[in-house]
Specification:
There is one protein chain. It is built from 8 helices and 5 strands, in the order H-E-H-H-E-H-H-E-H-E-E-H-H. With 169 residues, it is an alpha/beta fold. A 3-stranded parallel sheet has the order 3-4-5. Helix 5 packs parallel to helix 6. It is globular. The model has no long low-confidence stretch (mean pLDDT 87).
């Protein structure tokens, strides 16, 4: 939420589309993930108060692995430009993404700082930093440490808490 608030504050975006991976193949290969419909409902609850944010099920509607390039191509049909917003920890992995060369030509990257992480973007990618104080919080931290609603209330919007189930971790 802090990253989207910072992105909105840049006045760079007319609209921000939050997508939920239908099959997050990189994560699901390493550990169980919550059902896509539940993750979509949590995103809708979390971002419902953001007028510039649209939560989309575009990746859930497709079968197979969720590739960013497919989503970018679909969104390009209605947008003149597309920026991907990501944490500094993900930027170095961009060359390993599915069809990275094509993706590089289609997007600019908005980098959100992460605690203790230098911003390192591979050569050839258009990017900019989204100014904000780094937030030391990750979904894996919430899954591992938040065992009850009182713990969750420290980290999640109130509307998301009833949807969260530690058994889906």
């Amino acid at each position: 939420m802090a990253a989207l608030e910072a992105a909105i504050a840049t006045n760079r975006f007319d609209r921000i589309v939050v997508t939920v991976a239908g099959d997050p193949y990189v994560k699901s290969a390493n550990h169980p993930v919550s059902p896509a419909t539940l993750r979509l409902a949590m995103a809708e609850a979390a971002f419902s108060s953001f007028t510039q944010v649209e939560v989309s099920g575009i990746e859930i509607e497709r079968t197979g692995p969720s590739y960013t390039i497919d989503t970018v191509k679909a969104l390009s049909e209605e947008a003149s430009s597309i920026d991907l917003i990501m944490g500094a920890d993900l930027a170095p992995t961009l060359p390993s993404w599915h069809h990275a060369e094509a993706l590089r030509e289609l997007v600019s990257i908005g980098i959100v700082p992460r605690p203790g992480q230098e911003i390192e973007v591979p050569t050839g990618w258009r990017w900019y930093e989204i100014p904000m104080d780094p937030v030391d919080l990750s979904s894996s931290f919430i899954r591992a440490g938040a065992q009850n609603p009182l713990d969750l209330a420290k980290f999640l919007p109130p509307a998301v808490i009833p949807l969260y189930s530690p058994t889906d971790r």
